[in-house]
Specification:
Blueprint: E1 7-8, E2 11-12, H1 18-37, H2 50-58
Antiparallel strand pairs: 1-2
């Protein structure tokens, strides 16, 4: 009969509930890092440069689309309804 427990080197690491403990622990470790390093907008970030602010405010600059509507499906009909 198959066991539902995770056993490695004769150590029982728990059954299926252990995955909830693993991901719960990862979330507890992740939250303080996110709370310290995440900002509402790039303008609030303490290390952003003026060049980066200009780049973000102008967009990414990679678009070859000259009509300015930023649609990904350039099929020529331009009926964005």
């Amino acid at each position: 009969m198959a066991s539902r427990d995770i056993i490695i080197n004769d150590v029982n690491y728990g059954g299926w509930p252990s995955i909830f403990y693993v991901f719960g622990s990862m979330g507890i470790l992740w939250f303080p890092l996110w709370a310290v390093f995440a900002y509402d907008t790039p303008l609030l970030h303490p290390t952003i440069t003026k060049d980066e602010i200009i780049l973000i405010s102008q967009g990414n600059g990679d678009s070859d689309d000259d009509d300015g509507d930023n649609d990904d499906d350039d099929d020529g009909d331009h009926n964005d309804v």
